[in-house]
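re: ur question from earlier - yeah i can do the single chain one, its not a big deal. heres the input i used so u can compare w yours
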Amino acid sequence: MAAFLKDIAPILEQACVRGTLDAAALAVVHDGQVFEHAWGLANRREEIAATPDTLFHIGSATKSITAELVWQLIGNGRLRLDMPVIGAAPELSHIATLRDEGLTIGHLLSHTGGLDGDVIFDAGRGRDVLRRYMEQIGEIGSLHAPGSQFSYANVGYGILGRIVEVAGGQVFEDALAGRLRVHHKLTRVAILPIEKIRQRTALFFSGERPDYFGPYSNIASGTVLAMSMGDLARWAASHLEKGGAVPALTEQMRQPVVALPHNHRYQGWGYGVSLLDDLGRSLIGHDGGTAGTATFMRIAPHRGTAWAMAATGSAAVAVYREVEPHLRRLAGLPDQLPRNPAGGPVPEDLSIYEGSYRRHGMTFDIAKGPERTLVMTITGSMAPTSFSGLTLQPVTAQVFSIRIPALDAEIWASFHEFDEAGKPQLFFVLERMTRRGDPA
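and the output i got, formated as tokens:
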């Protein structure tokens, strides 16, 4: 299996030499064999080399493991996919949005609940952190009716973490550790800071200080967990076909819940994983980003292949785009096909899209630009400044492309819920919905 490395190694090694990556690690499980390798420096300041044993913060890839914990409780009858969130955790009734009995555990797993999902703050530390995090949330906005749209919601997985505690009778930290260390028998895993100190954990320095992981209260949705790529690939491999059948847990997690023809990255979303090829029949996975680290986890259930890659540095996404075609070929998968964006012909008058679209911590002001384009300005406490001022090029009446120089990438944004006057009420960008909020 290592023969395929001759094509991948130069890409990762040269990125580390150029300095666009500090470190990278790749692990592949294929036909029962495990391959692990690492490049660059896990700690540039101290010139500590990355090795296959190095831990990387896996960010939102944690959500797939949280989903596995939820499905474990569904399997033993303590939860149901269609159970209202408020029925699973009545203590959350102080948050008005969660009192809607039409909002279910399935909606949270699939990011279709409509929650304005980036309610992220530091609720301190300790084993009761998820309870305190939920107690301190006074309000969660609603962007759309449950089940009607897709909008990535970090807070939804925070709620699921607390539901795991309530239904399972076990602190989430212990449930997570037990699932990984006892059930999956993984050893290169760290949750607590002391565990990260005892093992070699990659750090990314954007200045004099390293980029640290986010609030501990985000443990269930993805700022805390660190793993070696070998262990993450082994976890992914537990979802591969065995004895001619895909495990029931994998089938449950990859059920197609929502198709996303307006999304440049995924064909759809399931109950815990993103759906890539064939709406998840051929390839599923999850990405993560935290502490200056980007992580990419993929599972090809019928191909006996799973892989995990993490990298620290500004070019992580661009470098992974170069690496993935080689991994696809190893798994016998075709190169990713071009997406066909949703929507009809572009209208002559682009003024219908103009307006302010809002979500927690961000306001997107859309205005007409030169030569039949739109211009996006972003403000707010959580606004990604590198995305402000970018141009939206029309692809269809619904989908616009955005070139992001900082990432050397192109993404799609899209408009939804057009009213009788032809104006969209929702703007989808960066995997999240925003709702029109023009002044009266």
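The two ends are 62 Å apart (CA to CA). not sure if urs matches, ping me
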